[in-house]
Amino acid sequence: MSGGEKVVLRLLQQVGQALDVNTLGMQPLQLADFAHALQQPQGLVLVTGPTGSGKTVTLYSALQKLNTADINICSVEDPVEIPIAGLNQTQIHPRAGLTFQGVCVRYCARILTSS
Protein backbone atom coordinates (compact mmCIF):
# COMPACT_ATOMS: atom_id res chain seq x y z
CA MET A 1 0.00 0.00 0.00
CA SER A 2 1.20 3.49 -0.70
CA GLY A 3 1.66 6.14 2.02
CA GLY A 4 -0.90 8.62 3.22
CA GLU A 5 -3.92 8.61 5.45
CA LYS A 6 -6.36 5.74 5.20
CA VAL A 7 -9.85 5.42 6.59
CA VAL A 8 -12.07 2.41 7.09
CA LEU A 9 -15.75 3.17 7.54
CA ARG A 10 -18.12 0.63 8.99
CA LEU A 11 -21.80 1.52 8.89
CA LEU A 12 -23.77 -0.28 11.56
CA GLN A 13 -27.37 -0.91 10.68
CA GLN A 14 -29.88 -0.75 13.50
CA VAL A 15 -31.62 -4.06 13.88
CA GLY A 16 -35.27 -3.54 13.02
CA GLN A 17 -36.39 -6.99 14.09
CA ALA A 18 -37.17 -8.19 17.57
CA LEU A 19 -34.32 -10.01 19.26
CA ASP A 20 -36.16 -13.31 19.58
CA VAL A 21 -34.43 -16.64 18.97
CA ASN A 22 -37.70 -18.02 17.59
CA THR A 23 -37.51 -15.61 14.63
CA LEU A 24 -33.96 -16.48 13.51
CA GLY A 25 -35.04 -18.92 10.82
CA MET A 26 -33.67 -22.06 12.45
CA GLN A 27 -35.26 -25.44 11.85
CA PRO A 28 -37.20 -26.76 14.88
CA LEU A 29 -34.44 -29.23 15.85
CA GLN A 30 -31.75 -26.55 15.51
CA LEU A 31 -33.81 -24.16 17.62
CA ALA A 32 -34.32 -26.83 20.30
CA ASP A 33 -30.58 -27.59 20.37
CA PHE A 34 -29.73 -23.88 20.55
CA ALA A 35 -32.24 -23.27 23.37
CA HIS A 36 -30.88 -26.31 25.24
CA ALA A 37 -27.30 -25.03 24.89
CA LEU A 38 -28.35 -21.63 26.26
CA GLN A 39 -29.89 -23.26 29.34
CA GLN A 40 -26.66 -25.01 30.36
CA PRO A 41 -24.82 -23.57 33.39
CA GLN A 42 -21.49 -23.72 31.55
CA GLY A 43 -20.18 -24.43 28.09
CA LEU A 44 -19.35 -22.75 24.82
CA VAL A 45 -21.62 -21.87 21.91
CA LEU A 46 -19.85 -20.97 18.67
CA VAL A 47 -21.78 -18.90 16.15
CA THR A 48 -19.93 -18.83 12.84
CA GLY A 49 -20.69 -17.80 9.28
CA PRO A 50 -19.87 -15.35 6.53
CA THR A 51 -20.50 -11.61 6.71
CA GLY A 52 -24.21 -10.84 6.73
CA SER A 53 -25.31 -14.34 7.73
CA GLY A 54 -26.89 -13.27 11.03
CA LYS A 55 -24.17 -13.99 13.60
CA THR A 56 -24.64 -10.69 15.42
CA VAL A 57 -28.43 -10.95 15.58
CA THR A 58 -28.14 -14.59 16.71
CA LEU A 59 -25.77 -13.67 19.55
CA TYR A 60 -27.79 -10.66 20.66
CA SER A 61 -30.99 -12.75 20.53
CA ALA A 62 -29.30 -15.31 22.80
CA LEU A 63 -28.26 -12.54 25.20
CA GLN A 64 -31.81 -11.17 25.19
CA LYS A 65 -33.20 -14.63 25.99
CA LEU A 66 -30.77 -15.02 28.91
CA ASN A 67 -31.35 -11.47 30.16
CA THR A 68 -33.32 -11.82 33.39
CA ALA A 69 -33.23 -9.88 36.64
CA ASP A 70 -31.63 -12.76 38.56
CA ILE A 71 -28.42 -13.00 36.50
CA ASN A 72 -25.70 -10.50 35.68
CA ILE A 73 -24.57 -10.55 32.05
CA CYS A 74 -21.41 -8.67 31.14
CA SER A 75 -20.21 -8.32 27.56
CA VAL A 76 -17.01 -6.85 26.18
CA GLU A 77 -17.58 -5.68 22.61
CA ASP A 78 -15.93 -3.85 19.73
CA PRO A 79 -18.22 -2.03 19.13
CA VAL A 80 -21.47 -2.42 21.06
CA GLU A 81 -23.76 -2.89 18.07
CA ILE A 82 -27.12 -3.36 19.77
CA PRO A 83 -27.63 -1.88 23.24
CA ILE A 84 -29.78 -4.15 25.42
CA ALA A 85 -31.36 -2.81 28.61
CA GLY A 86 -30.24 -4.74 31.68
CA LEU A 87 -26.91 -5.92 30.23
CA ASN A 88 -23.53 -4.57 31.28
CA GLN A 89 -22.09 -3.90 27.83
CA THR A 90 -18.56 -2.48 27.73
CA GLN A 91 -17.07 -1.19 24.51
CA ILE A 92 -13.30 -1.49 24.31
CA HIS A 93 -11.15 1.52 23.57
CA PRO A 94 -7.46 0.53 23.46
CA ARG A 95 -6.15 4.12 23.34
CA ALA A 96 -7.97 4.84 26.60
CA GLY A 97 -6.67 1.63 28.18
CA LEU A 98 -9.88 -0.36 27.72
CA THR A 99 -8.68 -3.57 26.06
CA PHE A 100 -10.46 -6.93 25.92
CA GLN A 101 -7.91 -8.39 28.33
CA GLY A 102 -8.02 -5.46 30.76
CA VAL A 103 -11.80 -5.32 30.94
CA CYS A 104 -12.07 -9.10 31.39
CA VAL A 105 -9.48 -9.06 34.19
CA ARG A 106 -11.44 -6.30 35.96
CA TYR A 107 -14.71 -8.25 35.62
CA CYS A 108 -13.04 -11.42 36.97
CA ALA A 109 -11.49 -9.52 39.88
CA ARG A 110 -14.91 -8.13 40.83
CA ILE A 111 -16.44 -11.60 40.69
CA LEU A 112 -13.70 -13.12 42.85
CA THR A 113 -13.81 -10.38 45.48
CA SER A 114 -17.61 -10.32 45.71
CA SER A 115 -18.11 -14.09 46.07
From TrEMBL:
What Pfam families does this protein map onto? T2SSE
Which GO MF terms are attached to this record?
ATP binding; ATP hydrolysis activity
Q: Which residues form the Bacterial type II secretion system protein E domain?
A: 3-103
What family is it from?
Belongs to the GSP E family.
Which keywords belong to this entry? ATP-binding, Nucleotide-binding
Q: Which gene encodes it?
A: hofB_2
Q: Which GO terms describe its cellular component?
A: plasma membrane
Say which domain of life the source belongs to. Bacteria
- This protein is called Protein transport protein HofB
Q: Where does the UniProt annotation place the signal sequence?
A: none
Q: Which InterPro entries match?
A: P-loop_NTPase, T2SS/T4SS_dom
